[in-house]
Fold these 3 entries.
Entry 1:
Amino acid sequence: MNEKYGSLFESLTLPNGVTLKNRFVLAPMTHYSSNPDGTISDQELPYIAQRSKDIGLVITAASNVSDSGKAFPGQPSIAHDTDIPGLKKQADTIKAEGAKAIIQLHHGGREAVGDLVPNGDVVAPSAVEKEGAATPRALETAEVEQIVEDFGEATRRAIEAGFDGVEIHGANGYIIQQFFSPFSNRRDDEWGERLRFPLAIIDKVTEIVEKHGSKEFIVGYRFSPEEPETPGLTMKETFELLDALVEKPLDYLHVSLMDFHSTARRGADTNAKRIDLIKERINDRIPLIGVGSLYSADDVAAAKATGVPLIALGREMLIDPEFATKLKEGREDEIVSLIDPARTDHHGLTETLWNIVLQTKGWVPTKAE
Ligand SMILES: Cc1cc2nc3c(=O)[nH]c(=O)nc-3n(C[C@H](O)[C@H](O)[C@H](O)COP(=O)(O)O)c2cc1C
């Protein structure tokens, strides 16, 4: 291995005492490939096995905790006990490659798809209109409490299925972020207090882990630092969230960024990188995962050199699932950073994901045909 990549292969011990073998994280990625009822399909298993090799922490695709939260066709479900056998196969597949298996817990809220949820009933904190989207129905107070319970039940299922942990999906505009956002949460009951829902979910998840899991069970939290809307989340609100999160018994925080080096839009020094602002605010109180448009060995080395302890790769791991292995074996020259539409192995992607990647121009870097 080239010495300059050495620090990526150092182990890291999380606050709960669990040691990750290296600093690579597989970013959670929706693949649209589970069975129509949300159970794990056979095509998902080789896909995730291939992407678990030489990775410390593997985070699965967003998995819906309630039927009302389903936001993608082919989304995996963790909403029913009947999902557990398939989830167990998924956890076993990841762990067999030597990675820690983390399932991402998700509810789409207003981003759920009418055709995929019972009675087309799309729910959210408030019935806020948004251009180009149907207006959701505001949740009743009891329904909000039920969704908190659903995250708890999903955690119990993750434990029963043998996962090493869960990641609470508080990012990318889904229900947890919707409750935290001044744009989407206009409630006047107690859930209008915007930090209440994210913190209630964390408390429920950690309560279930104490009850059914072990000390080694990992609980992480993913967040998005800013929203484009006004009013909307800015770095200022993100700092408030971080201050609350570091007080909770979490094992890592995971920022969701499309570009690791992007700068702040509002609520902080707009010349500063979001990742630096977040790192500074956290001040090493909890491990942070950074992510976003890292495609080469040197991109990853530069990201690690910022002092962020864990580095997630998303699209690059769709393109080249052997990224970490090649780095480990001193074969960084062989890293592939473009999807090749002519490749007959389809880069090991499931058929559905392969077709979506090819059709969605500009989403994943692709070789010109
Ligand atoms: C195909 C695809 C599916 C994604 N699905 C999820 C998801 O289920 N949960 C999530 O938190 N982020 C999801 N993301 C965002 C990624 O986790 C990651 O933050 C983003 O792609 C930036 O990292 P990258 O440049 O390494 O891909 C998805 C991204 C892609 C490309």
Note: The chain has a mean pLDDT of 97.
Entry 2:
Amino acid sequence: MNRIMKQLIVAIFLLLVFFSTNAQPDRWQQHIKYVINVDMNVTTNRFTGTEKIDYWNNSPDTLNRLFFHLYWNAFQPNSMMDVRSRELGQILLGNDRNGNPVYDWDPRVRDRISKLLPNEIGYDSVQYIKINNKTQKLIYHETILEVDLDEPILPHSKTALDVAFKAQVPVQIRRSGRDNAEGIRYSMSQWYPKMVEYDYQGWNANPYIAREFYGVWGNFDVNITIDKNYMLAATGTLQNANDIGFGYEGDGVKVKQPTGNTLTWKFSAENVHDFVWAADPNYKMQKRQIKNGPLFYFIYKKVDSLEWKRTALADTIVKAYPFIAKTFGAYPYKNYSFIQGGDGGMEYPMATLIKNFSPGTAIHEFMHSWYYGLMSNNESLYPWMDEGFATYSELRVSAWLRGDFSFPFTNAYNSYFRLVKSGKEEPMSTHADHYNTNYGYEVNAYSKGCVFLAQLGYIVGDKVLDKILLEYYNEWKFKHPNPNDFVRVAEKVSGLELQWYKEYWIYTLKNIDYAIGDINEENGNAKITIKKVGLMPMPVDVLITYKDGTKEMHYIPLGMMYGAKPAEDNTPRIIHPEWKWVDEEYSFTLAKKVGDIKEIEIDPSQRMADVNRVNNKITVP
Ligand SMILES: [Zn+2]
């Protein structure tokens, strides 16, 4: 772990320099170390476990209670997740192509939880939590366990906790569980009593209803004892690989497994905020080592007819990694695992559970190593910062792999436009759990969050956006950035004021609509008027194409930006005086006559999310 430690020290040093030169206060964050021992029974699908937790309260606050997540308690009839899913199942969204009604529930969940039998439900049951050998008072709130402390935890102190728990793996409903549709025995995510993150905004004790996650930064040592026929894949690095084998052993090592019917797999991960594992007796693996980069594991069920697909994905990731590292920052851990499991694709630190090995999903989940894994935003409060950013980077990486240099975000824009029209749009600042519909949540998190970045490229220039993404990585990896943190990076890198963009795009439902207005001739010069029809202001690119084939980019900065983006191509550009946001119209004059103009187009790049594009372009007869 020397390499990571060295990088961390450099990062901390740079941060200190950064904060001292900018005179900004540092933001504290809690730290945790888990040592988890698990004994898995593959016949009953139950396990017992212990956790030794060291918890550093780095906050200035005295804590009188703690909270833990017990996610698997959601997989029981009448749980909040079950009730919520069935409630959303009452909301009719419309009809599909065949005229069948489409309801708002997640088709993977529907009412399946309500039908689970006692041996199919999940549970996480804590037997005790002890501090200094004293048993603490536990209050169950279904998926949240409240721990009322007999003695408060003081600011800037370290506390050791002993936890004993037992659990039953639920039949796989969503993300986690056993015996999924592809027959994977165990997809073990959100499986252990996990400390709720306490941050500068307080406790984040969100009852689990199927959505988002957030965790304490820390280190994990996880020792899993299981039937020796099972192969495991997990967050972190296997410490006893040469005693375990299954392909994890070093090159040329002759593996000598200990005797007995079980094996104990010892995984260790540093600077992560969650831990996932999966197990199946028919797993196999492929490995790909990137030179001066991570070791990739691809772990999947042996199916000969699908082997080409697994190999193709492995080769694709090897091809994509250098572009990813250059564009979004280097992956700082030693290894990463693509694991067949779960019910689609779901991100975890240093690993993903994916259902089929499609490159799009795999790249999306791998990009979560940045947006979730490293820049660990609170996913409940800012789901678009991980889903939207992962979608944005997935689409860019996929386009690069295809060698396609056209704009890759059109589908995300269209999805956002449809949401606006549907009337189901809610502000992007809505807490993930509290959206009125799954539909509104998903489009905001994935599409409108992706548009947030793609459109920022329009506002500051795509090359500047690239610098912003790298600076965001440099400043905020291994932390918990919020939207303002990202926008502040964007402001400092671009030299433009962007608070207005954050306020309009995230906190309101105002949308963008610019239109071409009157075209007149004044003293032999064409005078063009642009109208602000929508309520959200933007800087405006207007491309004029003349009948002689020449083009001119006319750029109208928005007054609130206090600056102009750099020119983005070789088209001659004319920068006009700023547009004050209260003005509903803006006019500028050309050096040529109306008769010379062939075409006028607002934002030919289509990166501005103008909800009504029919009034953006005219051809002059
Ligand atoms: Zn995602």
Note: The two ends are 68 Å apart (CA to CA).
Entry 3:
Amino acid sequence: MAETFDVTIIGTGPGGYVCAIRAAQLGMKVAVVEKRESHGGTCLNVGCIPSKALLHASERFAEAQHTFARMGIIAQPSFDLSRMMAFKQEAIDGNTKGIDFLFKKNNVSVFRGAARIAGPGKVAVGGQMIETKHIVIATGSDVARLKGIDIDEERIVSSTGALALDKVPERLAVIGAGVIGLELGSVFARLGAKVTVIEYLDRILPGMDGEAAKTFQRLLQRQGFAFKLSSKVTAASTDKTGVALTVEPAAGGAAETISADVVLVAIGRVPFTEGLGLDEVGVARDGKGRVVVDDHFATNVAGIHAIGDVIRGPMLAHKAEDEGIALAEILAGQAGHVNYEVIPSVVYTAPEIAAVGRSEEELKAAGMAYRVGKFSFLANGRAKANQTTDGFVKILADERTDRVLGCHVVGPMAGELIHEVAILMEFGGSAEDLARTCHAHPTLSEAVKEAALAVAGRAIHA
Ligand SMILES: Cc1cc2nc3c(=O)[nH]c(=O)nc-3n(C[C@H](O)[C@H](O)[C@H](O)COP(=O)(O)OP(=O)(O)OC[C@H]3O[C@@H](n4cnc5c(N)ncnc54)[C@H](O)[C@@H]3O)c2cc1C
């Protein structure tokens, strides 16, 4: 007689594994199915964690090269890419093993292999059939491909191949000026690659606040990045010496050739549902291939739910995690909920760029009246002491109520600073609330307080 579970989760990325742990905490009998060798999905194996390990290591190298001498530290840094990659692998292993431990601790049953939904309440894995009350699709996403450009993971790589290069390319062409392209471009630029980013749109980081993105582009150019905006790659030819990319103006016109040793295709990600048998069970998907869910993460088929990159919304690990928690609570009869208005996003470059809530462009498009409070790190004591003064904090508040609607930070530790505004927004707080909260001195956080003061035109150090 087959074992029966309360919930079976397909995929153990940040969405799936967090959903499993929360469901187990709530007393459910939980199974997970994973086709990869290690848990943690894209994020831990080929995404957030390895990219951050390489960003960390390469940033320390760049600091040692460019800023140590100014601080009186004499060093002659060099690097060994294979050891840097081993450091990255240790980060992956440490994190993925942590999930094995958490699954054991919470009595989550693990099935290895590719799952197929055989019908409501039935999940097939290899020769086994799992009987379950609920099914959660948490199968994540895959690299988006560009027509006519074949990813061979050697000369033309996806983020996965870029994270495993055995040599720093002299010339790296990055197709796509989104988060992944700029982060991995930064890693290799710091290690000596000449990086050219080709982007279809007329700006970098689509979706981020325009002013923050422009400032950030200037800072990246200062670090040696070259940008070809409003341009499309139409063909690539590879030989032993490298890749020749045919690049045309997005609006049409004469083509030019950009030569590179390695090309990184970073034009985004697409939902992954291959082999799940969704057509057979009738689970609806939208035009972009995403599993369609209602506000409670339920698909159109009773007992089948979905979370994370495979459904609508930003493709971010913490969004997937929060959906996993909310869904587990809903399945347990509680009121699980995700506030999509307050999902921070961070680009982990140097400086970092972080955002939460609405951008100026979004507020304008929505016809909302707002006030801007902006404060430069040039006037922040701690940033001055550290000589990391590039960037600013910008707070956007409702003109009538002063409620904070968004925050955009370009600068040191932006990815940490953004959370004080995220929490404020969760509580429906105002710029005044933030401005009247005592902040320790000297901290970078004081720039956030000053930006809040600046909303009412009363920043002290500006
Ligand atoms: C280079 C890179 C850097 C990134 N950096 C960040 C970052 O800094 N911060 C951030 O928030 N996000 C980042 N992301 C995005 C983040 O990785 C994803 O948003 C996140 O992993 C989505 O989680 P998920 O659980 O929905 O899916 P995934 O993490 O994609 O996990 C899905 C899992 O399902 C498994 N699976 C699929 N089909 C089946 C099947 N039929 N049977 C069994 N198992 C199956 C897969 O093997 C996989 O392990 C990055 C992504 C990349 C590529």
Note: Residues 274 and 299 are 17 Å apart (CA to CA).
